[in-house]
Amino acid sequence: MGVLRKPRVRRWPALAILLTALLTGCGGAGYSKSDFIAQANAICTNTLRQTRAIAPPTSTVQPGAMAAYLGRLVPLVQSEADQLRNLKRPPGDARDRLMLSQYFVALGQVVSAYRAFEAAARSGDSDAIASAEATLRASPVAALATAYGIRSCGTPGATVA
Hints:
The chain has a single domain (30-154), classed as Four Helix Bundle (Hemerythrin (Met), subunit A) (Up-down Bundle), CATH 1.20.120. Helix 4 (94-123) runs antiparallel to helix 6. It has seven helices and no strands. Residues 12-28 have low confidence and may be disordered. 70% of the residues lie in helices and 0% in strands. It is elongated, with a radius of gyration of 25 Å.
């Protein structure tokens, strides 16, 4: 009578599956600044396309028309900002991290300015309208986006520029 042997378990397929899962879960080569920039550019390009589909008011002296326009625009600006904030932050040097942080602060200020602009247009407050417009014109958000490499978010005509 021969020696009873345990059935041989094939470990290679299980090991290959585990290794593949680990490499895929870690992102393979990793997440880079260029990955972040590509995703951010896609978000801004999509939002810009959506905003260009909204017909702007024919006259800025009609606060009701401006308020209606901003009522459609502000949710898009907010969504764009939320999507950008939800992107995974890439690793980088201290300068890149600081610039990205400054960009997100400026982005939040732009969203607030658009909200103030909408509220001012709804109430017909011309001083508040002028203040919101000045805040938007003075915002560094476009320059910060461009300096970081997010060109679609920093081009003239972009929603937050």
